Amino acid sequence: MGCSRVGGLVTRTAVSWQWGNVDATEAGRDVYLTHRTTNATLRVCGGRLRRDAGYGDATPVVRRELARVGAIIRLRQRGRYYLHASAAVDPHGRAFVLAGNSGTGKSTLAFALAKSGWSILGDDGVIVDAERGEIVAHAWRGPLMVSAALTGPFRELAGHGVHAMKGDSRQRIPISAAQANRGRVSALLFLERSPVFAITRLGPRDCLAALIRQSPWVILGDGESRRHLDTLRRMAAIPAFHLRHTAAEVGRMGEILAEALS
Fold first, then answer.
1. What are the backbone dihedrals phi and psi of residue 95, each rounded to the nearest 5 degrees, phi first?
2. Under a CB-based contact definition with an 8 Å cutoff, are residues 197 and 246 in contact?
3. Is residue 121 within 8 Å of 87, Cβ to Cβ?
4. DSSP run (H or E) holding 168
5. Cβ atoms within 10 A of the Cβ of 234, count?
6. Four-residue CA torsion sign, 202, 208, 209, 211
7. pLDDT range class, residue 102, cuts 50, 70, 90
8. Which of 7, 109, 135, 238 is the most exposed place for a label (fewest CB within 10 A)?
9. Would you list the domain boundaries of the chain?
10. Lowest mean pLDDT among 1-5, 108-112, 146-150, 237-241
11. What is the dihedral of CA 151, 155, 156, 157, to 10 degrees?
12. pLDDT, tens digit, 9 for 90 and up, residues 125-137
């Protein structure tokens, strides 16, 4: 259930959709976000995030989960769309988007690119939109979250396991890296960990299907869905690759991506 207001009262209405621990109820362009474990509520109203019942007393984790969904909805209403991906900008100003399910190596490869002089747009998320015929990726702020277990390719992580996030099964460590604000997307890489390295070109249809899986907000069915889908279709025309990678490629990932576009 979600919240809506009638006069000064809060009433319960049917949930329109769910994302993780967040229930969403739509009322025109306003969206009520309720955390199902606490009933803390955040509203997206008039293009702004407004605290509602229980938000101020909620834990930082609950507030972050609500604010994350609220920010995605707010940006969506402005024609900018969240993609579950990391992204980095090379020394020539070209943005490469690395998309894939959790555990496919987005953060690992982003960290490897940062070590080789690239700047980072996002670790586990990036915002995309269409500007004057081009697809532009915008920063989704936050540190790189790199597993403490990756001391093989990243020796500087040795001994940093004590700094891993509490309760994180993947033992990830927040790492600072040079960040970019935006970049024109030059290539899309859909990642898969594999015992054998391979990089193959993806056609527009397969690329679009992969983009929809990593940007599922497109299926909400609200007033933004058509424009969201149109943006993903335009992205599908950008050179796209299926990248199967092993630990051996981490140190030369920048060269691999540059070669893919050559």
1. -95, 135
2. yes
3. yes
4. none
5. 17
6. positive
7. confident
8. 7
9. 2-76, 81-261
10. 1-5
11. 10
12. 999 999 888 999 9
> Taking a C-beta distance cutoff of 8 angstroms, is the pair 243, 190 a contact?
yes
Residue pair 85/121 in contact by the 8 Å Cβ criterion: no
- Angular region, 201: left φ>0, alpha ψ -120 to 50, beta rest: beta
How many angstroms separate the CA atoms of 251 and 217, rounded? Answer: 34
pLDDT at 3: 39
CATH for 81-261 is: 3.40.50
Backbone φ and ψ of 124, nearest 5°: -120, 15
The type of residue at 9 is L
- From residue 86, how far is each of 54, 121, 127, 142, 214 by CA, in Å? 32, 7, 10, 11, 11
Q: How far apart are CA 234 and CA 238, in angstroms?
A: 7
CA separation for the pair 254, 118 (Å, rounded): 8
CB atoms within 10 A of CB 12: 11
For residues 85 and 214, is the Cβ–Cβ distance under 8 A?
A: yes
Burial of 57 (0-12, 13-18, 19+ CB in 10 A): exposed
Q: Whole-model pTM?
A: 0.84
- What's the token pair of residue 162? 């004590």
